[in-house]
Structures are given as structure tokens and as C-alpha cells.
């Protein structure tokens, strides 16, 4: 296993960390050539490794690229960090192609879909009935609320500019207020969410209709071939 790229993602990268936030690391690794070429090659190329304390998620190059080609929000952000804990030449080559992963269809569906999923989950807590949230449930609901809107804001900018701006600290107060709204007034939060979702649906996109899968495939092949050379 050889790490190609690794950096701090999540709330720290968004400028939304609190005193209780953990540091989340995400990275890409290249599996040993023997594993990829062997009978279990497909499994080796589709592997992820997750550890806690510290929280580290590592995706094999093949799996990472497959997820990034669908604009998975959590995976995509790795390529847009301002700095890295590990950045090899192969990692820099991967970052250089970050725009090739993007597409209008997948940004709208992945970012919008994930935000909608989170919104439904937190609103469902209210609909299930309660005598009052526990402190932990309220904290998680507020976090989900602000990250729902954070995703929509980032996606709007990504579609409009072709650049993923991770740091949303300029909107920190507004996003935390939205999180509190998700706890205290779910109807008002739902209205705010629908407004931002409509903004995402309406924004004119500068991204291509489809990602450049061929360019990514070429890079993956070149990196695997280079790994065969002693």
C-alpha cells in the first residue's frame, strides 16, 4: 500500500469546526501491483480502509476514482484542499485532473441528493414525535442542518464557477443559525432548505454534461504501470 494523497477534510476544511469536532483525514492509496494483478484484483482495486482515533478513511485509487467520477461530495473535496499531509507526484497528477471528474448531472444529483437525504432524516426526527430532543440528538440535528445547506451552497458555486470552494467560514454564523432552526423550527428549516435547493436547480452550469472518464482511466493505467517498475 502506497499513500498518494491525504489531507484533513470535514468541518475543519469547511471552517465550521467546533470544540467537539474530530479531525477527519481522507486519502488515496495505490494497492500493491501483485494484489491488483492477481485473482482478487477487482476486490483489491475496490478496497477502503477505515480507522478511528484518529479518524482516517483511505480509498484505493480505483475505488476513489469511481466515487469521484460520480461527484461524491465527501470524496471530491479531497482534490480541492489548500494543503495536504501527504502529496506525492502521483497525488499531484490526480489533483491536476480534478476538473475532469466534474459534470453537471452528477454535481446536481450527488450534492443535491445527499443534502435532501440528510434533510429528510432530520425532519423525520420531528415527525416521529418527541417530548424534546436530548442534548446529543439536538447536537446531531443541528450539525445535519448546517451541513445540508453547506452542501447546497458549495454545489451552487461549483456549478457556476467550476471551482469547489470548501471554506464556507464567511457563512459560518448563517449556517449555525440554520442548524439551530433545524432543531427549533423544522417547518422554517424546510422552507430554507427548499429555497437553497431551488437555487441549486436553477443555477446555470459551466461544467460539462459528462465527466472525462477516458482521461481518468488513462491516469489510473499509467500510475499502475509505473508501480510495476522496480
Overall number of strands: 5
Largest sheet strand order? 3-4-2-1-5
* Helix count from the secondary structure assignment: 11
Give helix % range. 55-70%
The backbone outline, from C-alpha atoms, is: globular
Distance between the termini: 15 Å
The average pLDDT value, as a whole number, equals 91
Low-confidence stretches: none
Strand content: 5-15%
The largest sheet, given as strand count, sense and whether it forms a barrel, is: 5 strands, mixed
Helix and strand sequence: EHEHHEEHHEHHHHHH
Brief sketch in words of this structure:
It contains eleven helices and five strands; from the N terminus they run E-H-E-H-H-E-E-H-H-E-H-H-H-H-H-H.
Kindly list the characteristics that best describe this protein.
single chain, alpha+beta, five-stranded mixed beta sheet, 5 strands
Summarize the helices and strands and which ones pair or pack.
Elements: E1 2-9, H1 11-14, E2 24-30, H2 33-37, H3 41-45, E3 48-51, E4 55-60, H4 61-68, H5 73-76, E5 86-87, H6 89-96, H7 104-127, H8 135-161, H9 172-184, H10 186-202, H11 213-228
Parallel strand pairs: 2-4
Antiparallel strand pairs: 1-2, 1-5, 3-4
Helix pairs in contact: 7-8, 7-10, 8-9, 8-10, 9-10
Amino acid at each position: 500500500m502506497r499513500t498518494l494523497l491525504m489531507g484533513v477534510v470535514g468541518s475543519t476544511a469547511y471552517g465550521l469546526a467546533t470544540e467537539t469536532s474530530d479531525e477527519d483525514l481522507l486519502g488515496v492509496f495505490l494497492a500493491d501491483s501483485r494484489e491488483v494483478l492477481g485473482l482478487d484484483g477487482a476486490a483489491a482495486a475496490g478496497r477502503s480502509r477505515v480507522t478511528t482515533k484518529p479518524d482516517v478513511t483511505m480509498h484505493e485509487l480505483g475505488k476513489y476514482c469511481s466515487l469521484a467520477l460520480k461527484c461524491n461530495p465527501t470524496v471530491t473535496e479531497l482534490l480541492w484542499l489548500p494543503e495536504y499531509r501527504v502529496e506525492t507526484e502521483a497525488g499531484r497528477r490526480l489533483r491536476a485532473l480534478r476538473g475532469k471528474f466534474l459534470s453537471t448531472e452528477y454535481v446536481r444529483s450527488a450534492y443535491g441528493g445527499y443534502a435532501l437525504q440528510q434533510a429528510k432524516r432530520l425532519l423525520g426526527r420531528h415527525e416521529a414525535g418527541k417530548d424534546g430532543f436530548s442534548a446529543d440528538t439536538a447536537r446531531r440535528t443541528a450539525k445535519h442542518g448546517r451541513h445540508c445547506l453547506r452542501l447546497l451552497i458549495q454545489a451552487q458555486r461549483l456549478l457556476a464557477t467550476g471551482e469547489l470552494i470548501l471554506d464556507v467560514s464567511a457563512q459560518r454564523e448563517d449556517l449555525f443559525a440554520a442548524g439551530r432552526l433545524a432543531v427549533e423550527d423544522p417547518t422554517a428549516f424546510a422552507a430554507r432548505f427548499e429555497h437553497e435547493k431551488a437555487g441549486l436547480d436553477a443555477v446555470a452550469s459551466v461544467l460539462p454534461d459528462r465527466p472525462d472518464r477516458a482521461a481518468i482511466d488513462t491516469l489510473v493505467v499509467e500510475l499502475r504501470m509505473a508501480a510495476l517498475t522496480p
